[in-house]
């Protein structure tokens, strides 16, 4: 699992044989009224679904959010 974190965004990817098979990206809101929120985009290759990749990505995300005072996570379409 590869990770990039700072206080504004989180980028996490899962690789297998040098190929990205899953990723999760989250970015916190910039305006004061939404700084407690982060918007999420996630993708898992179809052949890797059902293997707990998304579960593990979300565990990492929740850890990042809790350390950065983010109380609301919003999944985008």
Description:
With 77 residues, the chain is an alpha+beta fold. It has one domain: Aminopeptidase (3-Layer(aba) Sandwich). It has one helix and five strands, in the order E-E-E-E-H-E. The radius of gyration is 13 Å and the shape is elongated. The mean pLDDT is 92.
Mean pLDDT: 92
Number of domains: 1
Unreliable stretches: none
Helix and strand sequence: EEEEHE
Question: What portion of the residues fall into strands of 2 or more residues?
Answer: 35-45%
Structural class determined from secondary elements: alpha+beta
What is the helix content? 10-25%
CATH superfamily assignment?
A: Gcn5-related N-acetyltransferase (GNAT)
CATH topology title: Aminopeptidase
- C-alpha end-to-end distance: 24 Å
For the secondary structure, the number of strands is 5
Strands in their spatial order, largest beta sheet:
1-2-3-4-5
Shape estimate:
elongated
Rounded to the nearest angstrom, the radius of gyration is: 13 Å
CATH C-level category:
Alpha Beta
């Amino acid at each position: 699992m590869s990770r990039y974190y700072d206080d504004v965004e989180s980028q996490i990817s899962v690789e297998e044989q040098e190929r990205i098979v899953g990723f999760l990206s989250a970015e916190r809101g910039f305006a004061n009224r939404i700084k407690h929120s982060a918007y999420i985009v996630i993708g898992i290759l179809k052949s890797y679904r059902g293997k707990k990749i998304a579960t593990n990505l979300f565990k990492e995300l929740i850890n990042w959010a809790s350390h950065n005072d983010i109380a609301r996570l919003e999944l985008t379409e």
